[in-house]
Design brief:
By secondary structure, the chain is an all-alpha fold. It is 21% helix and 0% strand.
């Protein structure tokens, strides 16, 4: 489960890709149409 307002869940094609990404701090912008 993802807890906290400052976290997002990302999808990766493989477990290896997810491990290579690891944990990162990124800036996210949400745009509405």
């Amino acid at each position: 489960a993802i807890r906290g307002p400052d976290r997002i869940d990302l999808y990766f094609e493989s477990h290896d890709q997810a491990l290579r990404w690891g944990r990162r701090r990124v800036q996210v912008e949400i745009e509405s149409p």
